[in-house]
Design a protein that fits this description.
286 residues; alpha+beta; 2 domains; five-stranded antiparallel β-sheet; four-stranded antiparallel β-sheet; globular; disordered C terminus
């Protein structure tokens, strides 16, 4: 299943546009909707494109800047959490980016899927289904320009909508006015805002079970072949084999400090956890 990375209005037939517009109406793919009931998708996209053209700004610049702001904010909050600060407390203070843009975020339980491409197919076991879409997001962001005293609000999905579909939404509560985006973010013509990234090795928690003696995700083989073991806390042993590890606690253990492996906190409320070391991409744009 190949999901298109970009899909512009010029790529769509009238029939496809009609289907996408139907998804975008209020109470369809989202309660608020992406497009007011009486608006045309083509007309909204063309009108917003003229605003950006007037300022000499491209859709890619806007989308990249939004991505960069969100990535840097998440990075700052993650680092604050690793340093012992409460993660949500750090988010409440916002993340200062470029010395004048303060970023705040609200997380929702579910994610919003992009309406431009959305298909489902039955899973192989026939019980559930696979969802294919070209973008999604589960946060709402506010960016305040501290030297102007202005701000913009947008959903996490907006970076994808603008860069990959040239769409700022139309006359809904989640619309990002392109004029406001250019002014509040102080975008400049010809500047490359592509997010810059670097990699870092971290542990992430994977599957878990309350039965440490059962064969769970190849657990018994890993226990037998472990290259080394580490007593990470009283009653808790870590088995390491390459980039995989097992944490085993055969009875409840009361730990006052967070359990950490290579600086990353790990949940220890279960008896058996599979963890895996992986490379993640970090947004470090300035």
């Amino acid at each position: 299943m190949k999901v298109p990375k970009q899909l512009f209005i010029e790529d769509l037939s009238p029939e496809q546009i009609k289907v996408i517009e139907g998804r975008m109406r209020p109470s369809q793919y989202s309660h608020a909707g992406f497009l007011n009931q009486n608006l045309s998708l083509r007309e909204v996209i063309e009108a917003d494109a003229k605003v950006l053209e007037h300022h000499g700004i491209t859709h890619k610049q806007v989308g990249d800047k939004l991505d960069s702001l969100m990535g840097q904010a998440f990075r700052q909050w993650d680092l604050a959490s690793r340093a012992g600060e409460d993660y949500y407390g750090a988010r409440a203070k916002g993340a200062l980016v470029d010395d004048f843009l303060r970023v705040f975020a609200v997380c929702w339980m579910g994610s919003q899927q992009c309406p431009f491409f959305y298909e489902t197919r039955p899973s192989e076991d026939g019980i559930g289904h696979y969802v294919y879409n070209c973008g999604s997001g589960s946060h709402d962001f506010t960016v305040k320009n501290e030297r102007q005293g202005t701000e913009i609000r947008f959903p996490q999905l907006m970076a994808h909508l603008v860069r990959d579909h040239h769409f700022f939404e139309g006359d809904t509560s989640y619309r990002l006015n392109p004029e406001d985006a250019v002014k509040v973010l102080e975008l400049k013509s010809g500047v490359d805002y592509t997010p810059k990234t670097e990699t870092e090795i971290l542990w992430r928690t994977g599957s878990s079970t309350s039965d440490p003696d059962g064969d769970f995700c190849g657990s018994q083989e890993l226990l037998r072949s472990a290259e080394r073991t580490v007593d990470v806390a009283s009653g808790i042993k870590l088995y390491l084999d390459g980039d995989k590890g097992l944490i085993v606690a055969r009875e409840h253990v009361d730990i006052k400090e967070p359990l950490k492996i290579d600086g990353a906190e790990v949940c220890y409320m279960v008896q058996f956890i599979v963890v895996k070391k992986e490379l993640i991409e970090l947004n470090t744009s300035m």
